[in-house]
Amino acid sequence: QVQLVESGGGLVQAGGSLRLSCACATSGRTFNTYTMGWFRQAPGKEREIVGAVSWSGANTYYSDSAKGRFTISRDNAKSTVFLQMNSLKPEDTAVYSCAAGPSPLQRGRAPSLAEYAYWGQGTQVTVSS
Fold first, then answer.
1. Torsion of CA 109, 112, 114, 117, to 10 degrees
2. Which backbone phi and psi does 118 adopt, to 5 degrees?
3. Reduced to 3 states, what is the DSSP secondary structure of residue 30?
4. What is the model's pLDDT at position 108?
5. 110 Cβ partners below 8 Å, 6+ apart?
6. Residues 129/14, Cβ–Cβ less than 8 Å
């Protein structure tokens, strides 16, 4: 079992920054054997991938909308994954959720939601114009 708790969301002006955290509690399999992903869902839209990070943190994936602005990282000693978001835009407004998946991060393709078995409740990010 894996429990995920996100924090760090809030209201920010366009151009501002936020850092999201996702604390993970596991039983059995250890945190550093899970690929971790950040997803978001805006009102009326489907959930979409923002970024993902491999078990060791050496490899990452970013959606086109996140590239150059967002950075995903992890601290395996603290069982925590982070999403640093800079240059935020109103279109980044969404509920952001972290997720854990048992499969390795595949290079060159976007991870699918189905690859992630465990999900947090999400944290709201609102970017005002």
1. 90
2. -130, 140
3. coil
4. 78
5. 49, 61, 63
6. yes
pLDDT of residue 29: 86
Position 97 scores a pLDDT of: 98
CA triple 129-49-81, angle to 5 deg: 90
Q: What is the mean pLDDT of each run of 10 residues along the chain (129 residues)?
A: 96 98 93 96 96 95 97 97 98 98 88 93 97
pLDDT of residue 109: 85
**DSSP-derived secondary structure letter, 89:** -
Residue in 85, 52, 89, 49 with CA at minimum distance from that of residue 69 = 85
Residue 53: strand, helix, or coil: strand
Predicted local confidence at residue 21, as pLDDT: 98
Given a contact cutoff of 8 angstroms between Cβ atoms, the answer to whether 80 and 21 are in contact is yes
Q: Which residues of 98-112 are buried (b: 16+ CB within 10 A; e: fewer)?
A: bbbbeeebeeeeebe
Phi, psi of 115, deg, nearest 5: -80, -5
In the prediction, which pLDDT does 28 show?
84
Measured CA angle at 30 (ends 24, 33), to 5 deg: 100
Give me 31's structure tokens: 């945190």
